[in-house]
Amino acid sequence: MAFDASLEMTSSGVAKITLSGELDAAAAPRFKEAVERASTQHAKRLVLLMEALQFMASAGLRVLIFAKQKMGRDVDVYIVGARDGVIETIRMTGFHHSVVLVDQYDAKTIESV
Questions:
Q1: CA–CA separation, 40 vs 97, rounded Å?
Q2: Which of 11, 26, 47, 60 is surrounded by the fewest CB atoms within 10 Å?
Q3: Could you give the CA distance from residue 48 to residue 44 in angstroms, rounded to a whole number?
Q4: All structural domains of the chain
Q5: Long-range pairs, 99-102, Cβ under 8 A, ≥24
Q6: Cα three-residue angle 80-83-86, rounded to 5 degrees
Q7: 24-to-1, 8, 37, 68 alpha-carbon distances in Å
Q8: Taking 90 as the threshold, does the pLDDT of residue 112 lie above it?
Q9: pLDDT given at position 60
Q10: How far is CA 72 from CA 20, 38, 77, 84, in A?
Q11: Residue range 71-91: average pLDDT?
């Protein structure tokens, strides 16, 4: 399945990036570009919607780490609906301590910034 990363900014300043397909080394630059666009829009939170993400290689994990650094320490990064394999990759590195893992998007909670 082809990879896609689309960015949407909410009226409350939350950047939502929807990821789908397989996030491998070839696809990582598209994800990084979406993160950079979110950063230039001064997002208050970064939400990564991963329900349709089938696979994430180490290159995708590197972009996740980049996203956390790029957004800054005051911007929470939410990972929403990630599959077990993706969560396992995140947990193996200990990066789950740096993000908020949730099963589903709750606008009332996430967008209250």
A1: 25
A2: 11
A3: 13
A4: 4-110 (3.30.750.24)
A5: 99/64, 99/68, 100/76, 102/78
A6: 95
A7: 11, 22, 20, 19
A8: no
A9: 94
A10: 25, 12, 10, 27
A11: 94
48 pLDDT band, cuts 50/70/90, is very high
For 14, how many CA atoms within 13 A lie in the half-sphere containing its CB?
19
> Are 84 and 50 a contacting pair, CB within 8 Å?
no
Question: What type of residue is 93?
Answer: T
DSSP state of 34: H
Q: Is the pLDDT of residue 8 over 90?
A: yes
User: From the CA atom positions of the chain, what is the Rg in Å?
Assistant: 13
Beta-ladder partners of 80: 49, 102
- Rounded to whole angstroms, how far apart are CA atoms 84 and 20? 15
Q: What is the DSSP string of 48-92?
A: EEEEEEEEE-HHHHHHHHHHHHHH-TTSEEEEES--HHHHHHHHH
Q: Which amino acid, one-letter code, is at 57?
A: A
